[in-house]
Automatic annotation (TrEMBL):
Gene3D superfamilies: 1.10.238.260, 3.30.160.270, Aldolase class I
Cofactor: Mn(2+)
SMART domains found in the cross-reference section: LeuA_dimer
Domain Pyruvate carboxyltransferase: 4-266
Protein's UniProt name: 2-isopropylmalate synthase
Biological role: Catalyzes the condensation of the acetyl group of acetyl-CoA with 3-methyl-2-oxobutanoate (2-ketoisovalerate) to form 3-carboxy-3-hydroxy-4-methylpentanoate (2-isopropylmalate).
Coiled-coil ranges (or none): none
GO molecular function: 2-isopropylmalate synthase activity; acetyl-CoA C-acetyltransferase activity; manganese ion binding
Taxonomy of the source species: Bacteria, Bacillati, Bacillota, Bacilli, Bacillales
Record pathway: Amino-acid biosynthesis; L-leucine biosynthesis; L-leucine from 3-methyl-2-oxobutanoate: step 1/4
EC nos: 2.3.3.13
Organism in which the protein naturally occurs: Exobacillus caeni
Catalyzed reaction equations: 3-methyl-2-oxobutanoate + acetyl-CoA + H2O = (2S)-2-isopropylmalate + CoA + H(+)
Keywords for this protein: Acyltransferase, Amino-acid biosynthesis, Branched-chain amino acid biosynthesis, Cytoplasm, Leucine biosynthesis, Manganese, Metal-binding, Transferase
Amino acid sequence: MRKIDVFDTTLRDGEQTPGVNLNSIEKLEIAKQLERLGVDIMEAGFPASSKGDFEAVKKIAQTVKGCSVTGLARANEKDIDWAWEALKDSAEPRIHVFLATSPIHMTYKLKKTPDQVVETAVNAVKYAKQRFPQVQWSAEDACRSDRKFLVEIVTKVIDAGATVINLPDTVGYRSPEEIGHLFRYMMENVPNIDKVKLSTHCHDDLGMAVSNSLAAIENGALQIEGTINGIGERAGNASIEEVAVALKIRNDHYKAETGLKLDEIKRTSNLVSKLSGMAVPANKAVVGANAFAHESGIHQDGVLKEKTTYEIITPELIGVYSNRLVLGKLSGRHAFKQKVQELGFDLSDTKLNEAFQSFKDLADKKKEVTDEDLFVMLTDKQTESAEAEKYELKSIQVQYGTENIPTATIVATSPDGSRIQEAATGSGSVEAIYNTLERMVDGDLQLQDYRLSSVGRGRDALAEVFVKVTYEGVESSGRGTAQDVLEASARAYLNAVNRVYINGFQKKFKRTANV
Ligand SMILES: CC(=O)SCCNC(=O)CCNC(=O)[C@H](O)C(C)(C)COP(=O)(O)OP(=O)(O)OC[C@H]1O[C@@H](n2cnc3c(N)ncnc32)[C@H](O)[C@@H]1OP(=O)(O)O
Ligand SMILES: CC(C)C(=O)C(=O)O
C-alpha cells in the first residue's frame, strides 16, 4: 500500500476564502486539531503577508511538534527570510516557495520571460535551501503550463535542492484524465524525478478537485494538498477528508492510504466550520449532516435489514458516535469532565471550572445539553483570550411590539474597564441592538453581513449568529451563541470588535479621555 502524505493548507489557502478571517488564537486551535488528525504537513500561513500571519505561523511552529509546519513564500529573498524567522523553531523547518509557470501568468502577472522565470525559481530554491532542509517548490498554474517548459523548470529546481515538487491546478481547470496524464508525463520525462516527492494541489472551480487529486495519486503523486471542508480561494480546494476516506473505502482500487486518524475527521470539520464561519452543506460528502441519514422508505427498509445496502461509510469511521453520555442539569463534574475529554478538548482547571459553570447555567434553561451545544460552548471557551482588552456584554434589554418602535438598552464594560450604558431605537430589534452598540464602541463600526442558525435541533436549541463588520476600516468577523437570538446577535457584534482589539489595534482606539 503506498503511503500518501497529507499536506493541509486550511490555515493558508483555506484562509484565502472570501470573508474568512482567523485570529492567531483560532489558527492555533485549528493547528492543534490538525496535529491530532495526523496530517503530515500543515501550511500555517504566509509569513510575509502580514504581521498577524507571521506571529500566527511562528506560534504554531513553536507549539506543534507532531508534524511538519510550513509557510508560503514568493520566489524572493524577502519572503523567504520572513518564512525562516517564523519557522526556524519548528521540528523540521520546511518552506513552500512558489512561482507561476503558465504563459498567462508569466506574461501578464509576472511580466517575465520563461528564462527569467527559470532563473528566479532556481535562485529562490537555492536561497531557501541554505536554511531549510525541506524545500517544496510549486509551479503555480502548472496545469495550464507548457509541458516541455514544465519538465525543464522542474528538472532545474530539483537540481537546485527542492525536495517536493507540487503541480497545482490553480484555477480548477483540468479533468481527472488530463491531470493523470500530466503526472504520468512528468514521472516519465523529468530525469531526476526520483529525488523528490510529487504533490497535487487542486481547486474546485469545476467541482473536480477531489477526483483530480485521486487521479494524480493514481499517476505518481505521493502528497495530496487540500483543506478541511474544502474551504479556500474561490470555489475552494480539494476536501482532505473526502480524499482520505475515498482512499480508505476504495483501497482495493487506489492501493494507497493516508496516515490520518479518520475518527478525528468530524471533530476537525466542526471546529473549522465554527471558527471560519463557513457552514458545511448538509449534503456534503463525508461530513455533511445528511451523509448518514436515510429518508426514503425503500432505503430505510434496506438499511434496517442490512446497513451495507445503502451505507458505504460508517459514521464511526469519521468519529460520529451516538450520544453515550447524556448531560443535563443533574449531571456532575466527573461526567462533565469525561464528556469534555470525549469531545477532544483539553482545558486548564480554571477553564474547566468556568465551562462547568456555563454548562450548569445552560442546563437550567435547556432540558438536555447536546454534544453540539457543548462543542460550541467549549470552543468559545478555548479560543477566548483572557488577557486581551475587550468590550464585555453585561446586560441587554429589548422592547418590541408591533405598535412600538423597537428599543434596546445595553450595559457593557469597555476595554479600559469602565461601565458604559446606551440605548437606541431601530426598525427591528436587531437593528436597535446594533445601533446601540455602534454608539457604545469607539470608532466607526458598520455591519456588512449577518447570519443566524440554530445549534442542533428542537425549540430550545441555542442560537448562533455570525457577522461580518468593518471597524475603523478593518474587516472583521464575529460569532455569538446564546439561548436567545437577540443576545447572540449582540455577542456576535461585540466579538467582531474584540477580534480587532485582539489582533493588536487597541492603541488606535483608546477613548480620548484616557489618552
Ligand atoms: C495561488 C495562490 O494562492 S498564491 C497565494 C495568494 N496569497 C496571498 O496573496 C496572500 C495575501 N497577499 C498579500 O498580503 C500581498 O499580496 C503580499 C504581501 C503577498 C504582497 O503585497 P504587495 O507587495 O503589495 O504586492 P501585490 O499583492 O499588489 O502584487 C504581487 C506582486 O508579487 C509578484 N508575485 C506574484 N507571485 C510571485 C511569486 N510567486 N514570486 C515572486 N513574485 C511574485 C507579482 O508579480 C507582483 O509584483 P509587482 O508588484 O512587481 O507587479
Ligand atoms: C501557492 C500554490 C500552491 C497555490 O495555492 C495554487 O496554485 O493554488
